[in-house]
Amino acid sequence: MSGFRFESVTKTFGNEVIFRDLFLQGDPGSFLCVVGKSGVGKSTFLRLLGGFDQVESGRITVGGEPVTRPQKERPMVFQSYEQLFPWLPVWENTAFPLRVVGIDKSERRIKAMEALHAVGLEQDAEKYPHQLSGGMKQRVALARAWIAEPQLLLMDEPFGGLDMMTRETLQDLLLSLWREKKWTVVFITHDLREAARLSTDLLILQENGNWTLKMNELSRPRDPYSTELNRWIQDIQL
Fold it and tell me: Beta 4-13 vs 57-62: how paired, if at all?
């Protein structure tokens, strides 16, 4: 696992300022949630950290190394279920990061089954994506991230399209994996309750390049409907 830093980062689109002089440090093992109104740059933030886009000024580092391009050690989990390959069974979707680096099929299978066991899908290893529910597809995406042994796990509203019960189940799963693997996670969400439940820190992106960082010191485990958590949410100004 690795921490990350934004050092005086500015990002613009045309005349629009997305971030202005953003300084942010994410410690190893932290869980940063990023929130804000539509269009303020939440996904842009994640693309910069993933190396899919570049800054105008300042720099971004992960584990002390400048971010210049995407790397398998920084996997991204999306909201879209199309992130899975429809022609591959679940176990091969899970093992795909190992296939890219040339690990042989028998070893890929062993590692994939370990990852699928971690997310409760080992019995579905031979199924194809079209046979899975939305929640199951996101479990496969988590398993694929697990198998990549990420320095930094990037998640772009991964549970946004799910019903409330499934979403809370996957939040529990993600928290369990985060504690076990000591991942560093950056998680985009539009749901303040989700952010309050998951985060160690909250980055609030605002219009005109403004931003606020808020520490989340709520005790764990967190009841998403507790009075304490509701009060914390009420203090957030988007």
Answer: antiparallel
Whole-number CA gyration radius for the chain: 18
DSSP symbol at 131: G
Contact 41, 188 (CB under 8 A): no
Q: Whole-prediction pTM value?
A: 0.93
What tokens were used for 163?
Answer: 């019903």
Give the contacts of 37 (CB within 8 A, at least 6 positions apart).
206, 207, 238
Contacts of 179 (CB under 8 A, 6+ apart): none
Confidence of residue 84 (pLDDT cuts 50, 70, 90): very high
By the 8 A CB rule, do 79 and 161 touch? yes
Q: Are strands 201-205 and 211-215 parallel, antiparallel or unpaired?
A: antiparallel
Q: Nearest Cα to 192, choosing from 59, 37, 39?
A: 37
221 preceded by cis ω (within 30°)? Answer: yes
φ, ψ for residue 210, nearest 5 deg: -85, 155
Cα(209)–Cα(199) distance, integer angstroms: 22
Contact call for residues 113 and 91 (beta carbons, < 8 A): yes
DSSP-assigned states of every residue in 51-62: TSS--SEEEEEE
